[in-house]
Amino acid sequence: CALMVTTIVLANRRVMKEQNRARELLANTQKEALLEGKLVSALVPDEVKERFLNGETLIADRIEDGTVMFIYICGYDEVMLSQGTVPTIKWINAVFTAFDHCIMQTSSMVKVET
User: Fold this and answer.
1) How many Å apart are CA 110 and CA 106, to the nearest integer?
2) Could you give the CA distance from residue 103 to residue 114 in angstroms, rounded to a whole number?
3) Which of 7, 38, 111, 114 is least surrounded, with the fewest CB atoms within 10 Å of its CB?
């Protein structure tokens, strides 16, 4: 009788360990999915994200009349070296936020993130 109780206790402990491990794996998977979602949201426009999540694997739209703006920030290296990473990134974000604001004020323009 003592042997059977010990076997049941050991089996119960094993099941509990497996359940805990399964919970941890699920929690980690959920965290990874959340991070992937945030990453995708940061990299592509919401419309493209939705199309991808709906199963489209090749997303290549054609724009008949478009303009591409490339920006070179003169003195960037010097700013980065003198100010450091965080202030420089904040400054660049402010510059691009100003560009975004100008773009969004014109109804015929659409911002495309790359």
Assistant:
1) 8
2) 15
3) 114
